[in-house]
Write a structure and sequence with these properties.
single chain; 1 helix; 13% helix; elongated
Length: 113
């Protein structure tokens, strides 16, 4: 039985394929790429995409919530928001952690308090 690639060997842009045509990726595809890039770049578990927005230069800004430290009870979990910037084809341009907080104290997102 063939084994799949490990997380470090997998292409984060495996599906959908941005090279399959000349069109820029959709918001949905940008969200998918961002989740995969976060999983590749950090050891913490990506939880969900909290926002996707186009930037002025046809790139995408995607915000991903990550569980950085699981605690018991889960209300004590430490979460973080990461901003992922993708080019129009879905390639990673930049990422940064914009906020870290305990569950239930998320604030307004987008790195705000």
């Amino acid at each position: 039985m063939a084994q799949g690639k490990s997380r470090s060997e997998a292409d984060p842009r495996q599906t959908p394929d941005p090279d399959s045509d000349d069109e820029a990726v959709s918001a949905s595809s940008a969200a998918t790429y961002a989740l995969r890039y976060v999983a590749e770049l950090i050891t913490s578990e990506p939880s969900m995409v909290t926002s996707v927005e186009p930037a002025d230069d046809d790139s995408w800004l995607v915000e991903v919530e990550v569980i950085e430290d699981r605690r018991i009870p889960s209300s004590g979990d430490m979460l973080a928001l990461y901003e992922i910037e993708l080019d129009p084809d879905g390639a990673l341009l930049a990422y940064r952690r914009t906020k870290r907080y305990s569950r239930g104290r998320a604030g307004t997102g987008n790195g705000g308090s």
